[in-house]
C-alpha cells in the first residue's frame, strides 16, 4: 500500500512513523482504499504482465492437449479474470490468494495469477497468515494432478514440480519481506540516532543559555534591588549601579545573540556560515571573579593550577559561574571562596563555599528566585565530562559545591575543543 494511507486513517505524524511496518509490510488491516505511488504502479504492472505471460504459456500448452470446448471456454474466461484480479492484490491479498488457490485445484489458466497472489501474501503478511495460505496451495495440487493429468509427464513428477514452484515462490516472498523489515529497522535506527543527536544538541544549547544568561540576569537583579531598597543612596553609588545594569543588560543581549547564532544554519546560497561562539576557559576565571567583586560580592579565588585543556577549563568555568550565581541569589553578600586545584593525569577539582545564613527570614530584600535547575545542570555537565559533582550544607555551617573532572595525561585537539 502507499504510505499516504495512514493519514487517511487520521494518524498523526509520530503515529504515522510507527505505523510504517503495518503499511509497508502489510501487517495491518486490509480492504481500504489503495492509493498507489509511482513505484507501486510499476510493480503492479510488472506483476500483471507476469501473470498474463504465465497464463499465455499455459494456454498454448492447453491447446495442444485438445481439451473439450466448454472446458476451454471456462479456462479462458477464468484465466482472463484472474489476470485482471491481480490489480486487487493490495486491497484483498489473502482473500484473492485463497480464491485463486481453490480455483487452481482444477483450472490451469489461473495458475499465473495464483503464483502472484501467493507471492504477495508471503511479502505482505506474517508467517501465521502466509503459512496456511501456502499450505492451501500445496493441498490443491493433489486434485489438480488427479483430475487434470499431464499427457507428457507422470503424476508424481507433476506433483513434485508443483510443490517446487509453490515453495520457491513462498521462499522468495519471505526473503523480500525480511529484506524490507531489515531496511525499515535500519531506517528507524537512523531516525532514532538523528532524534537523539537533536535532543542532545538542544540540551547543550539550553545549558549554554542558562549558564550565560543566569549570570547576567542575576547581576541585573542584584543592582536593581540595591536601587529599589536604597533610594537615598549617594548619587555616585546610584550612577555606578545604573551603569552596571546597563553594562550587564548589553552583555546579556550580546551573549543571547551569540548563543542563538549557533542555531542558525548556512544561508541558502551557502555563502554565510555562522561560527560557534567563543567559549571561556580556565584562564578567564579571574575575570569572572573580578566581575563579581565589582557587583558587590566578596569572592576569594585560590587558583592552584593553570594550563588545563580548553574543554576541561570550559566545564570548570561554567561550574564556578553557576555556583557564584547561586551564591549571589541565595547567600546575599556573604564571603564566597573558590578553590581550584588539580594535576594532569589525575583530575581537576573546584570547590565553591560560602557560610550559611544564620536564619532564613520570610522575605529577604533583593533575593533572586531560583528553582534549583542550576545545580541540576551542573551535575549533568560534570557527568557528561566523565566527572562528578556534590553540593549541600556541611556540619561546619557552610554550603559547598564540589566538582571533580578527569584530566587525562594526553589530550587531543578534539578533546580541547
Automatic annotation (TrEMBL):
The chain crosses the membrane at residues 41-60, 94-122, 129-146, 158-178. The keyword Phosphoprotein applies. Pfam families: HisKA_3. InterPro entries: HATPase_C_sf, Sensor_HK_TwoCompSys, Sig_transdc_His_kin_sub3_dim/P. GO terms for cellular component: membrane. Its EC number is 2.7.13.3. Keywords: ATP-binding, Kinase, Membrane, Nucleotide-binding, Phosphoprotein, Transferase, Transmembrane, Transmembrane helix, Two-component regulatory system. It catalyses: ATP + protein L-histidine = ADP + protein N-phospho-L-histidine. Residues 201-266 form the Signal transduction histidine kinase subgroup 3 dimerisation and phosphoacceptor domain. SUPFAM superfamilies: ATPase domain of HSP90 chaperone/DNA topoisomerase II/histidine kinase (SSF55874). GO terms for molecular function: ATP binding; phosphorelay sensor kinase activity; protein dimerization activity. This is histidine kinase. It comes from Nonomuraea fuscirosea.
Amino acid at each position: 500500500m502507499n504510505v499516504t494511507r495512514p493519514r487517511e486513517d487520521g494518524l498523526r505524524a509520530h503515529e504515522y512513523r510507527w505505523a510504517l511496518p503495518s503499511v509497508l509490510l502489510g501487517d495491518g488491516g486490509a480492504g481500504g482504499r489503495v492509493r498507489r505511488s509511482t513505484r507501486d504502479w510499476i510493480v503492479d504492472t510488472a506483476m500483471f504482465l507476469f501473470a498474463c505471460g504465465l497464463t499465455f504459456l499455459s494456454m498454448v500448452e492447453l491447446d495442444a492437449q485438445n481439451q473439450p470446448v466448454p472446458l476451454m471456454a471456462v479456462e479462458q474466461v477464468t484465466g482472463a479474470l484472474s489476470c485482471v484480479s491481480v490489480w486487487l492484490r493490495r486491497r484483498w491479498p489473502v482473500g484473492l490468494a485463497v480464491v485463486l488457490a481453490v480455483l487452481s485445484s482444477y483450472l490451469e489458466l489461473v495458475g499465473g495469477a495464483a503464483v502472484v497472489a501467493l507471492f504477495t501474501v508471503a511479502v505482505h503478511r506474517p508467517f501465521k497468515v502466509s503459512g496456511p495460505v501456502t499450505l492451501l496451495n500445496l493441498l490443491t495440487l493433489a486434485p489438480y494432478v488427479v483430475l487434470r493429468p499431464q499427457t507428457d509427464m507422470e503424476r508424481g513428477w507433476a506433483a513434485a514440480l508443483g510443490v517446487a514452484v509453490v515453495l520457491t515462490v513462498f521462499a522468495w516472498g519471505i526473503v523480500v519481506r525480511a529484506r524490507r523489515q531489515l531496511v525499515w529497522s535500519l531506517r528507524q535506527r537512523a531516525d532514532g540516532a538523528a532524534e537523539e543527536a537533536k535532543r542532545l544538541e538542544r540540551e547543550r544549547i539550553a545549558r549554554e543559555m542558562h549558564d550565560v544568561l543566569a549570570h547576567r540576569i542575576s547581576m541585573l537583579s542584584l543592582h536593581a534591588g540595591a536601587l529599589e531598597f536604597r533610594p537615598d543612596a549617594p548619587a555616585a553609588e546610584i550612577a555606578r549601579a545604573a551603569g552596571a545594569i546597563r553594562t550587564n543588560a548589553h552583555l546579556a543581549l550580546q551573549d543571547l545573540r551569540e548563543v542563538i547564532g549557533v542555531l542558525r544554519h548556512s544561508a541558502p546560497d551557502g555563502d554565510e556560515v555562522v561560527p560557534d561562539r567563543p567559549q571561556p576557559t580556565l584562564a578567564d576565571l579571574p575575570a569572572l571573579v573580578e566581575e563579581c567583586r565589582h557587583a558587590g560580592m566578596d569572592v576569594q579565588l585560590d587558583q592552584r593550577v593553570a594550563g588545563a585543556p580548553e574543554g576541561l577549563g570550559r566545564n570548570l568555568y561554567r561550574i564556578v559561574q553557576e555556583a557564584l550565581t547561586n551564591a549571589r541569589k541565595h547567600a546575599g553578600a556573604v564571603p564566597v571562596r573558590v578553590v581550584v586545584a588539580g594535576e594532569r593525569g589525575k583530575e581537576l577539582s573546584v570547590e565553591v563555599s560560602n557560610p550559611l545564613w544564620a536564619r532564613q527570614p520570610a522575605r529577604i530584600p533583593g533575593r533572586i528566585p531560583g528553582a534549583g535547575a542550576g545545580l541540576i545542570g551542573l551535575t549533568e555537565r560534570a557527568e557528561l565530562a566523565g566527572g562528578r559533582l556534590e553540593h549541600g550544607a556541611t556540619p561546619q555551617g557552610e554550603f559547598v559545591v564540589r566538582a571533580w573532572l578527569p584530566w587525562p595525561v594526553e589530550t587531543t585537539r578534539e578533546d580541547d575543543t
